[in-house]
Fold:
Amino acid sequence: MSGLPETDVARVQRWCRARVPERVRDQVRVEADIASRHVTVVECRPPWRADMGTAWTRFPIARLRYVKATGQWSLYWAGPEPAVPCIRPGGRDGEYRGLAGGGRP
Structure:
């Protein structure tokens, strides 16, 4: 697995599953892509045309970065303009504490 705390990763995965009701998961899903130092929350949608194949599109919504030395999480999200591929730090502790780190930001 990654160098991320397993409990925190499981919490993010549960949060993602809870975002979309079961009845519409054939139309949209929210998933967590796990890497060695971060978790990226993505919105997934099925192909809207038959000639596009079967792969769902994956659009990054937010990224949680973990610093092992400090045990701290940082939240980043995509900017409002699609042409600008920036991910900006965001939120105060309480705004994302429930998502990843429980009592930690």
About this structure: Residues 48 and 56 are 9 Å apart (CA to CA).
